[in-house]
Amino acid sequence: MEEMTVNLAGENLVISIAILIRTAQIYEKNNATFIHQIKRVENALQYISQNGIIDIELKGNHIFINQERIKATISSIAMYQYLTSMMKGKKVRGIIFHMPCETFALGEIFYIFSRIKDDKNVFYHLEDATQKIECIEWIELEEGEEEKAQREEDAKKMAIRTFIMGIQYLKETTESMLKMRKTNLRKARGIVRRFIELILSDNAYLIGLTTIKNYENYTLNHSINVCILSLSMGVRLGMGRKGLLNLGISALFHDIGKIEVPQFILLKPTPLTDEEMAMIKKHPYRGVEILLEEKGLWAIPGSAIQGVLEHHIKYDGTGYPEISGKRPCLFARIIKITDAYDASTTVRFYQKVPSTPYEAINIMWQKAGRDFDPILLRIFVNMVGVYPIGSIVEISSGDIGIVLDTPENPELYRKPRVAIISLTTPGSIFNIKDLKETDDFIMKAINPADIDFDPSLYFARVTGLVED
Fold first, then answer.
1. Do 276 and 215 reside in the same domain of the chain?
2. Cα 57 to the chain's mean position, in Å?
3. Are 65 and 138 in a shared domain?
C-alpha cells in the first residue's frame, strides 16, 4: 500500500475498534447496532491484514499497526485518544489478531474488553476471560522505571497526607464533641476510603507509617494506627469495599468514648483505682451514644457501631461491657487484635518501655483462644510477620537493621527487606538490603531502648514528616 493508504486504512481500523468498544458498553451482544459495528471492524481487519496477522501496538501515546505509526487526523483524533486511553486502562500494550477472526469471536473479544473492570490485575482478568478465543493475543503494558517510581512516590505522598489528615480530623472532631457541637462524620468516610485505596496499592508502606508514634496525642495517633491495621486485616480476609469502609469507620472511632474520661485518668502513670477503672470501662457505651447522637445509623452503620461497643470483649466472652457472655462480632474481634498490638508497642505514661513488635506478637499469641480469636490472630501474624515492619533486628552479618516489609512466603520470615541503620546518627541508614537475595538472616529482635534508637525516626525521615 502507499503510505497515505496505509494510514487511512489504519485510521479506519482505529475508529472502527473505538466505536465498537463504546457500542459494547451500551448494548448487549445480540443487539443489531453492536453486530453491525462488529462487521465494520471485521472488514477493516481483513483489508489491512498482512500474512494473516495484524499487530496493533501502543508506544507512548501513539498507535502502530504492523509496525507503521498511524497518524491521527482532525476527524479521528477523539477516537484515537479514546482507544489509547482504553488500552492503557486495561494495561494492554498490544493486540495481535491471527486472521481469520470470526464475527462471533470479535464480538466476544471487544464485549469483554469494554466491560471488564479496571484494577491492578485487569490484564490478567482480560487474558483469562478470552483464553478460549484462539484468534486474539494480548501484550501487557508494563510501566517504565520512571513511571513506576513516580507512581510509588505519589502514593507515598498521598499516604502521608491522609495519615496527617486523619489525625487532624480526629483532633477537630473530639474538640467539637467536647464543646457539644455537631461534627461532619461523612468526612471520616472519605479518609477511610483513601486508606483503603492506599492499602490495596502499598500495604507495607502504610503499615510502616503506624510505627510513627505521637507520645502527646496517643489516642488520636492510636486510632489512626488501629484503623490502618484493621483495614489491612480486612483486605487479607477478602472483604469488599463496603465491608472495609464499615470496618474502617468502626476502628477509627473505637475509642471515641474516651473523650469524656478525665485526662488525669488517661495519663495516670500508676495503677488505676476501682472507681477510675469503672470510668474507663464506660467508654465503649459512651462511644456508641456519642456516634448515635451525631448523625445516627444512616451515617455510622450498625456493624461499625457494634464494633465500637464490643472491642474490649474478649474472644471467650469475658471483658467489658458485659453482654451475656456472647462472643464479640467480627469487627470487634479484629479491632481487639490491632488495638492490643498498637497499644503494647507504644510508649505511654504508664508504659515507658513498650514491647517490641516481636515481643507483642509473642505475648498476644499466648492469649489466643482466650483474649483473641486464634484464626484472626494467625492472619494478623501472617500479615505483619514474626518480625513486623518497624522491628529492630540483629542480622547474621553483625549489622543492625529495621524491617521494611515482610516476605509473602511465611517460611522466609527471617529474610525480609531491611534498612541497615547507623547507631551514631539517629534515623540514618547505610543501605537497603533484601535478605532473600543474600545468605544473611535475622538472628533476633532487639528492643530499640537497648540501643537508644527510635524506629519511627527512620520512617519519619523517609516519608518526609521530618527533614534530615
1. yes
2. 31
3. yes
Contacts of 463 (CB under 8 A, 6+ apart): 156, 159, 160, 208, 209, 212
In a shared domain, residues 299 and 438 = no
Given a contact cutoff of 8 angstroms between Cβ atoms, the answer to whether 230 and 251 are in contact is yes
Positive or negative, the CA dihedral 173, 177, 182, 188 is: positive
Whether the Cβ atoms of residue 98 and residue 137 lie closer than 8 Å to each other: yes
Last residue of a domain, one of 84, 110, 142: 142
- Residue 322 class from Cβ within 10 Å (0-12 exposed, 13-18 middle, 19+ buried)? exposed
User: In which residue are the cell numbers 478465543 written?
Assistant: 133
- Structural domain range at position 204: 148-384
> How many C-beta atoms surround the C-beta of residue 399 within 10 A?
15
Listed residue (103, 80, 92, 105) closest to 12, CA to CA: 80
CA dihedral sign of residues 87, 90, 91, 95: negative
Considering only CA atoms, which of 384, 416, 422 is closest in space to residue 403? Answer: 416
Choosing from 350, 384, 418, the residue where a domain stops is 384
pLDDT tens series, the chain, 468 aa: 444 477 788 888 888 889 988 898 888 888 888 888 888 888 888 887 766 788 888 887 888 888 888 887 887 788 888 888 888 888 888 888 877 878 888 888 888 888 887 777 787 777 777 777 777 778 777 666 556 666 666 777 778 788 888 888 898 888 888 777 666 676 788 889 889 988 987 667 788 778 766 655 777 889 999 999 999 999 999 998 889 999 999 999 999 999 889 988 988 888 899 999 999 999 999 999 888 876 544 567 889 999 999 999 999 999 999 887 678 999 999 999 999 999 998 877 667 678 888 899 999 999 999 999 999 999 999 888 888 888 889 999 999 988 888 787 878 889 998 988 877 765 566 688 899 999 999 999 888 878 877 776 666 665 554 444
Can you tell me the distance from the alpha carbon of 407 to that of 261, in angstroms, rounded to the nearest whole number?
41
- 36 and 80 inside one domain: yes
Q: Are 112 and 68 in contact (CB under 8 A)?
A: no
Do 439 and 344 fall into the same domain?
no
